[in-house]
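tool=predict chain=A
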Amino acid sequence: MNKSELRKIYKQKRQELSFDVIQKLQENIYQQIYELDVSNIKTIHIFLTLAKFKEIDTTPIIDFFRSKNIKIVVSKSDFENNTLTHFYLEKDTIIELNKYGIPEPKNAKQVSEQDLDVVFVPLLISDEQNYRVGYGKGFYDRFLSNCRKDCKKIGLNFFKPIVKIDDFNEYDVALDLVIYPKE
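tool=predict ok
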């Protein structure tokens, strides 16, 4: 299937998930993250949850990495050129919703993509080659292409990867790992 078909299907599937099912799926995902080797990680980038789209709640993930003294970075979106700028998320950082309802930092210090060791990536579905379908604006592919070669790119998803996305292209950046609920 192509990205636009998959985007439509998996947005709908995610919306159909009940609160209880989401809680159970998230716990499984969190457990896998808590088991990751974090010994060489100094700075992670993570998305702030879009609750209206039933995205994975990243608050426990942020709390886990903070407890390991790992710096947290989040982004602001620029919809004029579909790019992300990155900022440290400190305990006193103010988070406000932008005009699209996306939570963003307001009083934070900017960070370069080159400073990131791990990036947690939101997605709707991925395939067995670790290509992903997101919301379709290319924000993350542009961002990931600017990261260091050794930066680990980890997708977080409620659904098991499909066999293949038919229409990935040269601008799509494959992830290193996709974490989804295991039985």
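Residues 19-34 form the longest helix (16 residues). The chain is about 25% helix and 25% strand.
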